[in-house]
Specification:
By secondary structure, the chain is an alpha/beta fold. The protein folds into two domains: 9-169, Rossmann fold; 177-273, ProC C-terminal domain-like fold (Orthogonal Bundle). The chain has ten helices and eight strands. Helix 5 crosses helix 10 and helix 6 crosses helix 7 (201-221). The chain is elongated and about 70 Å long.
Length: 275
Amino acid sequence: MTDKLTRPLLLVGCGKMGGAMAAGWLDSGITGGGVVIVDPVGGAEFRDNDQVSIFKDAQSLPDDLEPEVVVLAVKPQQMDAMLPDYARFAGPGCMFLSVAAGKTIRYFKAALGDQSVIVRAMPNTPAAIGQGITVICPNANCSETQVAQAETLLSAVGEAHAVKDEALIDAVTGLSGGGPAYVFYMIECMAAAGIRAGLPEDLAKRLALVTVAGAGQLAITSDDEPAQLRKNVTSPNGTTQEALAVLMDPDSGLGPLMRKAVAEATRRSKELAGS
């Protein structure tokens, strides 16, 4: 784990993602300089924490504030209006870490200047319960220490991995960024299929939910690859094999559908980023 921050961390936006990150940082002890939150309505859960200061907007921030990291956790459509208010912090000594989808390093460099230190991150929603996975991409101005700090900050809400090629963030968005929605929809479909097969609705929904959750946990904790775990469940000429014959159809099965889904999400991510 990298050394903890010695100057304040400035969190802009304290919704579900920002709040989850702040809770993780405070629990981990990395924010030795404290956390400063800017949000007009959020952050109430931290009001009694003496390590946290909350302000309603950028204009309310102290003039002498010198954050070590500025985390941008607002919606992408809000970024144009609010980013200029924080340009005064840009420079080699302050890292800007953005979790806003579709906003590129080039976008932040144009707003913050050529000397700005920028890390673009793509988390996913399970970060809200500390089970997320995030991929980050730093710009050339980031030091090794700053990259390590970004990974540590995002590891507070799950796993964090770094890539050097920003173009990969679009594929990350298509796979893990939207991935929770794909899994939620699979749970819906499994439950609906169970109901159609005659199960009571409540039981079908619970069976689908716990089956997916348990299988995911087994895949994470097992030494076996998912392909081997699948084979372990599949008896020759048994019921699971019959189901997999449908799901693994090379033309209409889950494989080609998932490839198409991730490709479409990746394409849209590129469009939103203007690349």
